[in-house]
Amino acid sequence: MPPQVDPTISGVLFETDTQTEDLGLDQDVSKLKKAGPKQYEYIWGNIAWFLFLHVGSLYGIYLGLTSAKWQTNVFAFLVHLMCAIGIGAGSHRLWTHRSFKAKTPLRVLLMIWQTMGFQDSIFEWARDHRTHHKYADTDADPHNAERGLFFSHMGWLCCKKNPEVIEGGKRLDLKDLYEDPVVMFQRKHYMKMMPLLCFVLPTVLPVYCWGESWTNAFFIPTILRYTIGINVVWSVNSFAHHFGYRPYDKSLNPRENIGVWMICVEGFHNFHHTFPWDYRATELPFYNMLTPTIGFIELMAKIGQAYDLKAVTPDIVKRRSQRTGDGTHHLWGWDDPEFTEKLKSQLGVVSHEARAEKAKSG
Ligand SMILES: [Zn+2]
Ligand SMILES: [Zn+2]
Hints:
With 362 residues, the protein is mainly α. It has 17 helices and 2 strands. The longest helix has 30 residues.
């Protein structure tokens, strides 16, 4: 292990990592937050690429408002939605957090949509995101929010990783990813599949299917759609780690940010870092219902493609927020009238019962 590497875990990933009855860690993790001195080694290729994407996107917005066919704008939105589900439900909730299980056809579909989103292969995405949760807000966190808003948004992709991040990633158990043939297939063929799915098809289809111009097809469903996609994910790492309330655990940087949710449809980030293995975006059914990723997982569960959906019990959520929250939990209202007894019994399942059961048998 190189010097300066701090092996202290500052966050949980799975139920099995938890040390307290209310599913937290048995230490004050706020004391672990840090951003030590860093030598920034810039990756100029990435910086030039991001500049091109953002300038190209402004042109894409202009074309979308002035000369694009309506089918092209609708198509761009649909491609964005597929990528968001591939990343949100696939590489995030299924492969990083194992918050539900999926049959092979669904895993293949999510893998294709995830590839279309071009944010690294599932294997790399899940490894980096596990590192982010396990070493949250330390130098082993790839987008350590302690280093500032810009660094956690996109700055981390403009420079080389800290050695702590690489070491943190190596300490993680990735056996499940190695054993998943869909993940391994995508890893092997990523550089052949990604350009076709992310850039070629979204440009070619509008031209051949409804006679769109090449310029519009390249700048709207391809460049603009892709740039929006990456910024959505980056905003959760940046804005939702800096602004908002912390009703579940005030020792963590991640926050509940309704603004980020409205734009990114993901932003209840204090809940997510407190209970990362929960398949839901939040404990609030109304917002889950309006979150496409969660709606998609529930739809897949209805048709039998997704199963073993994990959700933390209402009792645990309440106990945890009372012990470690910042006192704003009532703002979201656990006793909100919309959260009926019927929904509580449907959604408040698994985790702590399974854990108690395991403790009894083990
Ligand atoms: Zn986070
Ligand atoms: Zn996560």
